[in-house]
Specification:
The structure holds two protein chains of two kinds. Chain A is of the alpha/beta class. Chain A is 34% helix and 24% strand. Chain A has a single domain, classed as Rossmann fold (3-Layer(aba) Sandwich). In chain A, strand 3 and strand 4 (42-54) form a beta hairpin. The longest helix of chain A has 18 residues, at 200-217. Chain A is globular, with a radius of gyration of 19 Å. In chain B, the strands form three sheets. In chain B, strands 1, 2, 5, 6, 7, 8, 9, 10, 11 and 12 form a ten-stranded mixed beta sheet that branches. Chain B is elongated, with a radius of gyration of 29 Å. The chains are: A alpha/beta, B alpha+beta. Chains A and B meet through helix 3 of A and helix 1, helix 9 and helix 12 of B.
């Protein structure tokens, strides 16, 4: 049984978590999910029989050194990749049985994606970038741009709507990307190192914005990160190493190490 | 589907590359439009020369005026056949003609064969598209000539009132004629008897042109002329005669198509190269679009459209350039000298028609489509995660 560690040091087992969320069906559930890459005769086990559950309306972090499998796990949950074995359930849909085109259609409706390098389309204005995922819906042009404007207002960039990405700062670009992830009102928002390319001040802005998406809009957010600051904003952190989800004491030690790093080497609480 | 402006704006996001590729496509369009325009102008000139009710009578076995000879007796016999149209003075519309092809000096010092046609005044009625637009008709036996509009200013002495030198004599230009853009406009007309004595021909005529009353009588006349045992003659409808002359232009088509295809392939490689570079530089972007849920076909279409827009831009630039070029060539060269099957020079007014531009457009679209295919397919095949990682 894997352990989930809250940033305040509280530990839950998955079973307890189920109880905590009042036997509600979790939004995300994996069952013994593995992802194996083949390079010639070599097999690389990027993810090894990981089972976890994430209840709806939570902001969680996947943490771990590079190569720990956290990005692989995130890709599986976002429907960007398919597992070699095991089951992946998100919002009531089993993803591991969908083919690539079905996954693309599913992503368009159910997932909002945020990337480390923002990944805005340079030739489109901020509003057009935000409205881009809406092109895959049946909404008309007016409704698309109305919703794009609402999303831009939520991230505080309504007055930058007609700017092109190159005219925006890194922090602003990431906020446009968050608006783009938000605009389809997805079940799940997935962020891959969203603060990795930002300075401390902008990183804080982005993290608190993501936190607000959870608290104000009830969004479920999964974030892959190295950033120890992130712990102050998330509801819980999953620690991975060498393709497995750390449990119990191991998870607690990994957690402590990050907390120590964040507080400048002093062991203690990092409460806001 | 991705919006059009995504494809269009991406073209402008790399202005130098796009401009260079557009220019290459434009050059292909200019080359193919100019060549096609030249051929169709030549054909138009030749084909418009004939009249559907006119017959060309030549010695059996000759393919053109220049290679034929006819006696006075043959002319007299044919002149009174039934079924020939007559003018107001009740004279039959039968025009005996002698054709010679002397060298003329062009004003920039070159030498070209020009068709000189000896005729009688009735020729103006048989070839009723010929119309004197300046001066007057020549008077017989006065060493006078009228010249076609296309020759004016192109050759030494080919202006109203000047002296034209060819053969043994000197001819005063007393009139200028037009003929609806046909190849008559590239001819000099003089008195047929004067020309025969100047050229010292044993037989006075090279052929006869006559106007039939009707379609039915034309066929009958044709049969009767060819069946007459006294003279070995052949009669051919004038429009067919000129259509045959224009067949030499058809062999040019092969050349033009080859030029178009090869230069098109070159431009296609250029455009494909540009598109491959575009795909390469946008790997992360393609990954992002795929991650957001855009399907493979929509990526394919976006890149294919980008290649097509680029080719169409090349077509637009090329079409404007070739129309301007054709117009200014007309100004500077006063038409283009073109050797037809008869070896005489036909001065063709280069005109690029809609059909020439349409052919260039088709070529351009093929270039754009083929050039876009490979890069667009590569873009569409990229798995999203790998594209995101590589970008």
């Amino acid at each position: 049984m894997s352990w989930l560690v809250s940033p305040k040091g509280k530990r839950y087992t998955v079973a307890q978590m189920r109880w905590v969320t009042n036997h509600e069906e979790p939004l995300v559930r994996t069952v013994a999910v593995s992802r194996i890459y083949r390079r010639g005769v070599d097999e690389i086990r990027a993810l090894d029989r990981v089972s976890l559950e994430i209840p709806a309306g939570h902001f969680v972090a996947f943490m771990g050194p590079s190569g720990s499998g956290k990005s692989t796990l995130m890709n599986l949950l976002a429907g960007l990749d398919r597992p070699s074995s095991g089951e992946v359930w998100v919002a009531g849909q089993r993803l591991d049985i969908l083919d690539e085109d079905e996954l693309a259609a599913w992503r368009a409706r159910h997932v909002g994606l945020i990337f480390q390098f923002f990944n805005l389309i340079p030739v489109l204005s901020a509003r057009d970038n935000v409205a881009l995922p809406l092109l895959l819906t049946h909404l008309d042009k007016r409704e698309r741009s109305r919703r794009a404007d609402i999303a831009l207002r939520i991230v505080g960039l309504q007055d930058r709507a007609s700017h092109y990405p190159r005219a925006l700062s890194g922090g602003e670009q990431q906020r446009v990307a968050i608006a783009r992830a938000l605009v389809t009102d997805p079940d799940l928002i997935v962020a891959d190192e969203p603060t990795g390319d930002l300075d401390a001040r902008n990183a804080e802005t982005i993290l608190s914005l993501l936190r607000r998406l959870r608290s104000d809009f009830g969004k479920t957010i999964i974030m892959v990160t190295h950033d120890p600051r992130a712990l102050r904003f998330v509801d819980m952190a999953f620690h991975l190493d060498k393709g497995t989800l750390l449990e119990g004491e191991e998870a607690a030690r990994a957690h402590e190490a990050i907390v120590v790093a964040a507080s400048g080497g002093v062991v203690g609480h990092v409460l806001p | 589907m991705l919006p059009f402006r995504y494809s269009v704006r991406n073209l402008w996001s790399r202005p130098l590359r796009t401009t260079m590729t557009v220019m290459v496509v434009a050059l292909v369009v200019v080359a193919s439009s100019l060549f096609l325009g030249l051929i169709s102008s030549l054909k138009r000139t030749l084909v418009s020369t004939g009249h559907p009710l006119n017959l060309v009578v030549l010695r059996k076995g000759s393919d053109n005026d220049g290679a034929s000879a006819l006696s006075q007796a043959a002319y007299q016999a044919i002149r009174f056949y039934d079924g020939i149209a007559r003018n107001a003075a009740d004279e039959p519309l039968v025009s005996p003609e002698l054709v010679v092809q002397p060298f003329f000096w062009t004003r920039d010092g070159g030498r070209e064969n020009v068709l000189v046609r000896g005729v009688e005044p009735v020729a103006l009625e048989v070839h009723d598209q010929v119309e004197i637009v300046a001066g007057r008709m020549f008077r017989p036996s006065s060493a006078e000539a009228i010249v076609g509009r296309s020759l004016v200013g192109r050759y030494e002495g080919a202006t109203l009132g000047s002296a034209l030198k060819f053969g043994r004599g000197q001819w005063t230009v007393v009139g200028i004629f037009e003929a609806g853009g046909s190849s008559f406009e590239s001819e000099v007309w003089v008195d047929v008897r004067e020309l025969a004595s100047d050229a010292k021909r044993p037989l006075p005529y090279s052929g006869i042109r006559l106007r039939a009353n009707s379609e039915a009588e034309l066929a009958a006349l044709q049969q009767r002329i060819e069946a007459d045992p006294r003279y070995a003659l052949q009669a051919e409808r004038e429009t067919d005669y000129y259509a045959k002359q224009s067949e030499s232009a058809n062999s040019l088509y092969v050349l033009v198509v080859a030029i178009a295809v090869f230069s098109g392939i070159g431009a296609g490689f250029g455009a494909a190269n540009t598109m491959y570079a575009a795909v390469q530089s946008r790997v992360a972007e393609i990954g992002t679009l795929r991650a957001l849920g855009f399907s493979r076909p929509s990526i394919l279409v976006a890149f294919q459209l980008e290649a097509l827009f680029m080719a169409l831009l090349g077509f637009a630039v090329g079409a404007v350039a070739s129309l301007l070029l054709a117009a200014s060539l007309g100004q500077w060269l006063r038409g283009i000298g073109f050797g037809a099957a008869t070896f005489t020079t036909n001065v063709v007014q280069l005109e690029i028609g809609m059909s020439d531009l349409a052919a260039s457009l088709v070529l351009t679209l093929v270039i754009g489509l083929l050039a876009g295919l490979g890069p667009a397919a590569r873009a569409a095949r990229m798995p999203p995660i790998e594209a995101l990682r590589r970008g």
